[in-house]
Structures are given as C-alpha cells and as structure tokens.
Design brief:
Helix content is about 35%, strand content about 20%. The protein is an alpha/beta fold.
Amino acid sequence: MKPILVATTNRGKLSELMALLSGATLELTDLRQVGLDLVVPEDGPDYDVIAEDKARRYAVASGLWTIADDTGLEVDALGGAPGVRSARQADDDRARRMKLLERLAGLPRPWTARFRCTVALASPEGAALLGRGACEGEILPEERGHQGFGYDPIFLVAGTGRTMAELSLAEKNRISHRARAVGDLMRRLAQHGLPGNPLRGD
C-alpha cells in the first residue's frame, strides 16, 4: 500500500499531524520525503475551501492520498480576525504574536478567542472528506511556555490554566483544534466512507 502524504510545510503542524495519525498504523510520508516542491496559495474564503484545495492539489501532484489542513485564530474583540489570514499577518511566529497584541492593546479583557481547524483527506482522483475542530480560550498579553508554535504562547486554553505552549505534544494532541478535526474526520470516514481510502483499509 502506498503511504499517505501529510502535506504541510509547517514543521509544527507536521509533527502534530504525524503524531495524531500514528495510532492508525499507517505509513506516512511528507513533502520533503516525496520530493514535492509545490506551494498551494491559501487564498480561499474559509478553512474548508483552503484545506480541501490543498489536499486535492497535493494528491493530484503526488499520486498519493493526502491529508492537509487549514487553521486560524479567531479573536472576538477583533470580529473574528485574523481568521483565515492568521499565518499571513507577518513573516514569522513571534512577529505575528506581537502584531496581534498591538491590535488588542487598549481593548477590554478578557480577549476571548478560539483556534479553528479543518482537516481534509483527498484522493488522487479528487474525492475528498473534511473534519472540523475548535479549541476555546483567550489571548494573554504576555507569552508563556516554550512548546508548540504560532500563537500558542499567548493562547490560554479554556479550563486548563495553561497556554498551548505550556502543554506537551501529547497533551496538546488530546484537546487541540487539530486533534478534534482529525477525530471528526475519522468519525466521518467511519460513518460515510470514502471509497478506497487507506484510513479504513478498504
């Protein structure tokens, strides 16, 4: 059986997705291992469209079943921004966090927010299925923790008293938006199927 391609250029996402899918006894590969140098523009109107487009394009280009995701941070005080543009706010993670805190400065706290994620599984023939997940919390005015990536150091996870960056990978992969999206994808596959998909071995 051919491996499943986990299509992301973000090392943090790759580590999380590989860990989340490892329990399914699957052979997984990534863009570097298959030698695929393809950048898919993330210019869709929402997470679903962007995730599905990425999964389909990488599946067609590689000839492999492919998993891709799109994730965003939605801050209520900013009307849900930065949302689908979360990764395009600046050139690196710290600059993105600083830009967000600058936008929130002076606005009343708590700065309630959520991470939202869509994970897409696509075949080389174009079939696709989506899973969705969210994680509630709030934005803190200072960074805490050294794990994770992106906005994790300023995102306080609801009910935990800790930021995403203070959680281990195992802890994060039990409660995160991405973990919930992968879980939702697996449930949808079990309920509705997707002919030939390697996650079910059919």
